[in-house]
Amino acid sequence: MPRLSDQTRAARRRHILTSAWICFSRNGFQATSMDDVIAATGMSSSAVYRYFSGKDELIDATAGEGLALVRDMFTGALTEDPVPTPAEILALLVSDLRGHTENPEYDLSRIAIQSWAEAMRRPTLRARTRELYLEARGQLTLLAVRWQRDDLLAEDADPRAIATVLFTLLPGLIVSHHLVESIPFEVLNQGIPDLARALTSRKVVDSGTPSSA
Length: 213
Hints:
Tetracycline Repressor, domain 2; elongated; mainly alpha
């Protein structure tokens, strides 16, 4: 039997993975069996098991790919000159989510919600999720530092705090899309400054409890 090229092996692995995404997106991790995935690939069971030892390995690969996409989105923004503005990054979060949800075969954002639950159940996946999310937040922090250099943020602004706020928007956007409604960029672009003004309209005492000015 002729030896497969690296390109062919990579293509087959990707085919199995995307077939799993279709199943996971439709029925979730728990309700999807390896037999379901094998049937979706159109390959023999022995061929599939040559690439993935079981469902947990498929879930790990799926979660890892989704997490890396988030990290790489911000890494790519850092390579631009000039870097995208805060408003452009906010718009990127919205458009990136829309791009995932509009795929006719699978929805990686739906799978992301399942991955969070799976990460809470399995320590190794939780550790990997934490690692990649911290990397993504680190890229956002570097972007915030650039914004500060470009006078898009105040000199006394905390780049890490800015990055943390932006990063925590992403899970909220995903949950809202699937369980409430999609949040358009215009709502975020208006609501965030309005909230910031409200937060700075009062003095905050040491305990963190707002008090009247």
